[in-house]
Amino acid sequence: MRAVDVIVKKRDGQELSKEEIDFFIGGFTRGEISDYQASAWAMAVLFQGMTPRETMDLTNALIESGERLDLTGVVPIAVDKHSTGGVGDKTTLVVQPIVAACNIPMGKMSGKALAFTGGTLDKLQSISGYRIDLSTQEFIDQLKKIGLVLTGQTLNLAPADGALYSLRDVTGTVKAVPLIASSIMSKKLAAGAQAIVLDVKVGLGAFMQEILEAVELAKLMVDIGYIAGKRVVALISDMNQPLGYAVGNALEVKEALETLKGEGPVDFKEHCLEIAGHLLILAGRAKELEEGKKLSLEVLENGTAFEKFRQLVQAQGGDVNLVDDPSKLPMASIIETISSPLKGYLKEIHAREIGLSAMELGAGREKKGDAVDYAVGIVLKHKVGDWVDEGEALFEVHANHRDRCGGAVERVLAAHSFSKSKISPLPRFYQTVIHAHEEKKR
Ligand code: URA
Fold first, then answer.
1. What is d(CA 4, CA 40) in angstroms, rounded to the nearest whole number?
2. Distance from the CA of 434 to the center of ligand 1, in angstroms?
3. Is 183 an active-site residue?
4. Measured in angstroms, how far is the CA atom of residue 337 from the centroid of ligand 1?
5. Options 10, 82, 285, 310, the catalytic residue
6. Is the CB–ligand 1 distance for residue 184 below 6 Å?
7. Is 308 known to be catalytic?
8. 86 FRET partner, CA 20 to 30 A, in 106, 217, 269, 415?
9. CA-CA distance, 98 to 293, in Å (whole number)?
């Protein structure tokens, strides 16, 4: 078999066999198939697509490229969640403690910021001392001891996905639905997940702009999960405007802490309750969504979820003083409040533009390995649909460099648009995608 023949076959729109996919991904993992051939193949997949069977075989080939974590015997059921990436998305910081506080242990490996979207690990690292490099044994020991772990990926999970993703990132091939589905599911399955809630973002601040595209991706991932024998639910959620108000690492930790205390922005809190509610159903702790949400709200309001987060930070070497007193989290030297130049109903707060502004202030990375400034970011004051008066506070810019401030102010101002007529608030969720088999269990 030759790599070029596999590329040509896909370029010409034919279905690849399992042997061809294994050959290609195996060869790429071993360095026998070059980056330029893998890039050409990814472009062929982008244009020609893949059948569900091919996507499943690709997922398995990516899993086989590395190690697997087996959590059977460690927890009754290994639950996990995954977000396809958004702006202001600090959901894991709240959902994981909620689930653990409901006595469902949850160990999770998270990622760093990607493009304009934030990364959970960067947010956590704004808590000084917090370790994101736990060994597999430390992961398992902590999961058994306190019922939650939130760390980086130290095991060599689906390494072919990492290598392929780097190529896709620079060859315009991230957007291929079968490649995204296999990329996400290979990492979740290799990490030992048995029940997964997928938060598929759609809108201006997401990789997917159209609901139909997001549903296609969600269905594919749910099917992959079903074929792999896992319980999977995908929620299509709005990412036209940022989630909550805060965008930037320490600012988002602060907002997550407020939410863990039963306060925080309404949209973000509701989002977390919905995701946690579904996780509790998959874990067998709740029978239906309303019950799952009710249990989740209880642990937010009675302080046990907050206590779980505190335990997590302590167990992973973080400074709990910052959890108890968030004013001690990294804070920017310049905080500018910008007033609204107009009055009207907010029609749009362009999430991608807000994400890019935070990134330019230093909250994200231009390229891999860049340092992150934990203190900087944007704090919005309104949501789409709100009435805003001229001169009323519209947002805050948190910066550590005066020369970066002006650009961010302009960009965030331009990201807001107004209407004279009433605008409805944006929906939080558009659709839930469940496999028919999973639906029958409910
Ligand atoms: N997130 C992933 O993990 N992989 C993709 O391909 C896209 C988003």
1. 9
2. 20
3. yes
4. 35
5. 82
6. yes
7. no
8. 106
9. 10
For residue 235, the CA-to-ligand 1 centroid distance in Å is 16
Decide: residue 381, CB within 10 A, 0-12 exposed, 13-18 middle, 19+ buried: middle
Q: What share of the chain is helix, strand, coil (3-state, %, to 5)?
A: 50, 15, 35
State the alpha helices, DSSP H only, in 228-319: 249-260, 266-282, 289-301, 304-315
CA-to-CA dists, residue 412 to 119, 195, 251, 321, angstroms: 21, 38, 17, 32
Output the CA 182–ligand 1 centroid distance in Å.
9
How high is the pLDDT of residue 441? 73
Residue 438 pLDDT more than 90?
no
- Between the CA atoms of 356, 357, 360 and 366, what dihedral angle is there, to the nearest 10 degrees? -10
Q: Cβ contacts of residue 64 below 8 Å, gap of 6+?
A: 22, 25, 26
pTM, two decimals, is 0.93
What long-range pairs does 419-424 form, CB within 8 A, spacing at least 24?
419/344, 419/345, 419/346, 419/347, 420/344, 420/345, 421/345, 422/345, 423/345, 423/346, 423/347, 423/384, 423/385, 424/385
Structural domains of the chain, ranges and CATH numbers in brackets: 3-49 (1.20.970.10), 79-176+187-324+429-441 (3.40.1030.10), 332-419 (3.90.1170.30)
Q: What is the pLDDT of residue 81?
A: 96
Per-position DSSP letters for 67-108, written without gaps between them: B----BTTBSS-EEEEE---SS--HHHHHHHHHHHTT--EEE
**345: its two tokens:** 């109903």
Residue with CA closest to ligand 1 atom 5: 180
Which atom of ligand 1 is least distant from the CA of 179? 6
Cα 409 to middle of ligand 1, angstroms:
30
Q: Ligand 1, from 175, 179, 180: best to mutate by most atoms within 8 Å of Cβ? A: 180
- Report CA-CA distances (Å) from 76 to 148, 196, 197, 295, 413: 13, 14, 17, 19, 49
For the Cβ of 176 lying below 6 angstroms from any atom of ligand 1, the answer is no
- For ligand 1, is residue 84 a contact (CB within 6 Å)? yes
Q: Is pLDDT of 114 > 70?
A: no
From 207, 213, 220, 239, give the residue whose CB has the most ligand 1 atoms within 8 Å, as the site to mutate: 207
**Which of 126, 182, 183, 186 is an active site residue?**
183
Q: What is the mean pLDDT of residues 193-218?
A: 95
Tell the residue number behind the tokens 């982008």, with chain if given. 46
What pLDDT is recorded for position 377? Answer: 97
pLDDT at 17 over 70: yes
Q: Write the pLDDT tens digit of every residue in 20-30.
A: 999 999 999 99
